[in-house]
Write a structure and sequence with these properties.
The protein is of the alpha/beta class. It has helices at 3-17, 22-33, 43-55, 70-76, 92-104, 118-128, 145-154, 181-195; strands at residues 60-64, 84-89, 111-115, 135-138, 161-164, 199-206, 213-220. Bound molecules: S-adenosyl-L-homocysteine, 3,4-dihydroxybenzoic acid and magnesium ion.
């Protein structure tokens, strides 16, 4: 097994079931044009988010970490007519690029990008006491992933799906002495899930066009 076969199979799957249209390829191109790092999910993982959203009938979606709006576009496309997606982004320049990409995809009506630190905005969302979210995608900075997850539960109902990106990091999570703050952040979340009675959770490892990584997939059972 080598990485070449993972890339070839990823391309095989995306050619069959994860085709990008121009709005998505333009979004990826906009990152290079604007000097923004290429950290979007892959096409197949964008499709995977859609499958998960549709399986839980998601109408209200929360995303942490917008970047250029690539995952946002995949998810907003899986919303029903009256669906809404709120995406949090700390960097105003990234958020402005994402807004253009989302507009270009014809999804501006469904997507609300909020600029600021997720840890500042999440308490506001709780205070608003709106309807709970059906689906939450955590993909912002890694050190506070455990805190993000705890906020996500507070914004959920039983049955809400919470997905967290980049929790395997090429297997670096196996290193108990890692000094990498991103690795430590996701290790802390992964380990907390073992005792978390509010969710039924697993971690799916992923390979393909991006580096070996993984996603937490958790369904909320109860909220206490
Ligand atoms: N979900 C995107 C990729 C997100 S990359 C996609 O797949 O297309 C992570 C993003 O989180 C970056 O844009 C970064 O600026 C943002 N971010 C980092 N720290 C943050 C914070 N404290 N609050 C909100 N967003 C943050
Ligand atoms: C990083 C963040 C991401 O969301 C991602 O998908 C890949 C890498 C990072 O900060 O290293
Ligand atoms: Mg990510």
């Amino acid at each position: 097994m080598n990485e070449d076969i993972f890339l070839k199979v990823d391309n095989y799957i995306s050619n069959l079931l994860g085709q990008e249209d121009k709005a998505l390829t333009d979004t990826i191109a906009s990152l290079d044009n604007e000097n923004i790092p290429q950290m979007s999910v892959s096409a197949n993982l964008g499709k995977f988010l859609q499958v998960l959203m549709i399986s839980c009938n998601a109408k209200r979606v929360l995303e942490l970490g917008t970047l250029g709006g690539y995952s946002t576009i995949w998810m907003a496309r899986a919303l029903p007519e009256n669906g809404k997606l709120i995406s949090l982004e700390i960097d105003k320049r990234y958020a402005d690029v994402a807004k253009k990409n989302i507009e270009n995809a014809g999804l501006a009506q469904k997507v609300d990008i909020r600029v600021g630190k997720a840890l500042d905005i999440l308490p506001d969302l709780i205070a608003q006491n709106d309807e709970p979210f059906d689906f939450i995608f955590i993909d912002a900075d890694k050190p506070p992933y455990t805190e993000y997850f705890d906020y996500a539960i507070k914004l959920s109902r039983p049955g809400t799906l919470i997905v967290c990106d980049n929790v395997v990091r090429e297997g670096k999570i196996l290193d108990e002495n890692s000094q990498d703050e991103k690795v430590r952040g996701v290790q802390r979340l992964n380990e907390s899930l073992k005792e978390n009675k509010n969710v039924t959770a697993t971690i799916m490892q992923t390979v393909g066009s991006k580096e070996h990584d993984g996603m937490v997939i958790a369904v909320v059972n109860r909220i206490d």
